[in-house]
Amino acid sequence: METVREIVLVAAAVSMGLMAGVFGLYSHTVMPGLRRTDDRTFVGAFQALDRAIINPWFMLTGFLGALVLTGAAAVLLAGPGGPALSWTLVALVLYLIVFLITVAVNVPKNNALKAAGEPDTITDLAGVRAGFDEAAWARWNLVRTLATTLAAICLAVALLRYGQG
């Protein structure tokens, strides 16, 4: 059982790190780059990015994987986890916040942008872009970036504490 706990905790930390990286890249690379584009390019590129990111690899190893693996690590550490359990629970709460922000804020904005249609058929690209509200999307993504980074740090500390126990 010891080995299973360790594997799940490591997998949770890696998955959380991947998510921190994804949100971080959007914060400091993707959104600033798209901000500098014209409306047609912004709408088309963001739609393409959003369609591409929704795939089994991302969902299983990243977005849902971080949630499931961190939850599983917390359950497995419930008995013998000691200090590692506390850090894992903090990571889980942080990621639950990220999950809720994603479902309540970012995904609806993404879906609305995709529902507007292909850029070549949209008559008011500026209106579609304004309706998306990229500044709000980016602010909430920054919250996701910070929360997943803190959660990854918590899981790294949990690994250290578990290794000491």
Automatic annotation (TrEMBL):
Pfam family, one: Anthrone_oxy
Transmembrane segments: 7-26, 57-77, 84-105, 142-162
Keywords noted in UniProt: Membrane, Transmembrane, Transmembrane helix
InterPro entries: Anthrone_oxy
Domain of life: Bacteria
Presence of the UniProt keyword Acetylation in the record: no
Protein name stated in the entry: Membrane protein
Provenance organism: Catellatospora bangladeshensis
